[in-house]
Automatic annotation (TrEMBL):
GO terms of molecular function: transmembrane transporter activity
Matches recorded under NCBIfam families: RND_mfp
InterPro entries given in the database record: MdtA-like_BSH, MdtA-like_C, RND_pump_MFP, UPF0194_transport
TM region positions: none
Any one of the GO CC terms: membrane
Keywords: Coiled coil
Name of the protein this chain belongs to: HlyD family secretion protein
Family: Belongs to the membrane fusion protein (MFP) (TC 8.A.1) family.
Multidrug resistance protein MdtA-like barrel-sandwich hybrid domain residues: 55-216
Coiled coil: 88-115
Organism: Actinoplanes lutulentus
Domain Multidrug resistance protein MdtA-like C-terminal permuted SH3: 309-362
């Protein structure tokens, strides 16, 4: 953008001396207009897990401490598992006994079926071994003998108790299997393992402590997927949206990292004087060795126009809606002109009508 100077004469002192002040003008040109909003933020893990024991007990060992990096599946802490181990052993024994009873019941049922078949044959032969033709009538004595023989055969060695012994045994096996599974699950619950790779951020106990099931004992942060949490004032928050790009500059570092807005809180919080809105940004490429709680400078691009007619933002005054005023240098004195403005950026303002490329305007007035 070209820069020129124009002279303006004005009177000073009572001696009517004159002096010439130089005003700087610039030419309207084509280029990019960008608008960024900035604030401070804090580095934090994208995911934090609260880990607990699945059962209550006494802490026997803690394999990590705050700040340690762990891999998925690493053992982090254990409880005294003597009682849980004994319950698994007892449940295993009861299951084996139930399976033995089921095998015996099935054997008895098979034998009873064979006996019933023999009785049926005895009944058909009238007890004498010769088949009785269908519809044939037995003599009274033979009929009584046949019924007696069948009854004795059916009950001999396998008394009718009125219960299905196989079904009862199967139910006992099922119950024993459930009890064993619960005991094994309780034993597994005496150990906390890392569900993801990350960094230990907190441990809320020590060896020898009594803990309850479900109470958070270890905090694990996914430090391999870090993000930045920032608060923007209400005036800037209205222009923020998910998907916008930005940069993050870490404290004590001159290097900036690309980031993207992944969340804008729909409701702000007030400190009594200012309403602020929370925003989360994710790194495009997560830098190594980030620290949880590390401070950062955050800048988000909320507007951008490329290859448009522009002038310095300081050259545009009295902006109301899409209208503004510039001082055009066309002769001895600059002349005010109303123009139509587009995007008002940090350094430049887009001019959509009322000014042509190359025209000189006062940079600041």
């Amino acid at each position: 953008m070209g820069v020129a100077a124009a002279g303006v004469v004005f009177a000073v002192n009572q001696d009517e001396k004159t002096t010439t002040a130089r005003v700087v003008t610039v030419a309207a040109d084509k280029g990019d207009v960008t608008l960024d909003v900035a604030t401070t933020g804090t580095v934090e893990p994208a995911t934090t897990r609260s880990l607990s024991f699945a059962v209550g007990g006494t802490v026997e060992a803690i394999a990590v401490r705050a700040g340690n990096k762990v891999e998925e599946g690493d053992e982090l802490a254990t409880l005294d598992d003597a009682d849980a181990t004994e319950k698994v052993s007892d449940a295993s024994t009861k299951l084996a006994d139930a399976q033995d009873r089921l095998a015996t019941a099935e054997t008895n049922a098979a034998a009873a079926t064979a006996s019933a078949t023999a009785c049926a044959v005895a009944t058909r032969t009238g007890g004498g071994g010769a088949p009785v033709a269908a519809g044939a009538q037995l003599a009274a004595g033979a009929e009584i003998a046949a019924v007696g023989s069948a009854t004795a055969c059916a009950t001999q060695g396998y008394p009718d108790t009125g219960n299905d012994q196989v079904l009862n045994a199967e139910q006992a096996v099922n119950n024993a299997e459930v009890s064993l599974a619960e005991a094994e699950e309780a034993l597994d619950g005496t150990v906390i393992t890392a569900p993801i790779a990350g960094t230990i951020v907190s441990i809320s106990g020590s060896i020898g402590d009594k803990v309850n099931s479900g109470s958070t004992f270890i905090g694990l942060a996914d430090t391999y997927d870090m993000q930045v949490s920032a608060d923007f004032p209400e005036a800037d928050a209205g222009s923020l949206a998910k998907g916008q790009t930005g940069t993050v500059t870490l404290a004590d570092s001159d290097e900036s990292y690309e980031a993207k807005v992944v969340q804008v809180d729909p409701v702000g919080t007030s400190d009594g004087t200012l309403v602020r809105y929370g925003v989360l940004l994710s790194f495009t490429d997560v830098p190594s060795d980030l620290l949880v709680g590390q401070s950062a400078q955050v800048q988000v691009r909320t507007g951008e126009a490329s290859g448009v007619l522009r002038v310095p933002s300081t050259a545009v005054h009295d902006v109301a809606g899409e209208s503004g005023t510039v001082m055009v240098s066309g002769g001895s004195d600059p002349v005010e002109r109303t123009v139509t403005v587009g995007l008002r950026g940090d350094q430049y303002t887009e001019i959509t009508d009322g000014l042509s490329e190359g025209e000189q305007v006062v940079r600041s007035w």
